[in-house]
Amino acid sequence: MTTADLHTLTGAYSIHALPEAEREEFERHLGACASCAQEVRELTATATKLGLASSLTPPPAMRERVFAEIANVRQEPPQVPRTHRRNGGSAAGRVRRLPKFALAASLAAAAALGGVTVWQYQIAQDARERAEQAEQRGATMAQLLAAPDAKVTVGGLPDGASGTVVVSRSEDRAAFFSAGMPEAPADKTYQLWFSDHGTMRPAGLMQGGGQADALVMEGPVGDASAMGITVEPAGGSEQPTTDPVALMELPA
Known about the structure:
Layout: H1 3-7, H2 10-14, H3 20-30, H4 34-49, H5 60-71, H6 100-146, E1 151-156, E2 162-168, E3 173-179, E4 188-196, E5 199-206, E6 212-216, E7 226-233, E8 246-249
Antiparallel strand pairs: 1-2, 2-3, 3-6, 4-5, 4-7, 7-8
Helix pairs in contact: 4-6, 5-6
């Protein structure tokens, strides 16, 4: 494997998706490549937060697909070459054909292995994208909190929870922090909203259930004078479908 190839394995290594031989080769490469070592540390930390650090196995549907392909191929007896040809020649040098069943099984297995490789690569790509998104959110949060005009509003939430909104008009961004927010009901989510003098627009989703939650609200603050939280179907809504469980004024 070339050095260029090894550079592309940081994501797969971080989530334990490399075969043993490739893993050992990549670990030798890590000892001499500072940039890959740094990237692995960052991706591993992110994967741990995302619950992706444990070893992953291919989806059961992939195994079922392989056996379904094999089951659809009729098994035929092997074609045994004749010992002597009619003209007296020997058939010892003739190439024996694979039975169709064996060929189909080989192709199905190859397809499955290819599917595993693609699946592992996609998982690694997803981890990399999530790491980049988490890094971007962290940078945005830090910039918002450090803004000289950042102002804070604190309010009450359901079941004794508390909420804090930090707003920077110069950055045109806001962040929401909650403590003790109960988990959203099954198949539901909490949705945050900016209120532009009574007109609500989506500002992000949260599930609750943790001791503390923090997120940069989606979209610009604009002329919003308040923010609200509603319980919506999973995935959120374009407009609120329930009464707000909380409303908080935004500092001017």
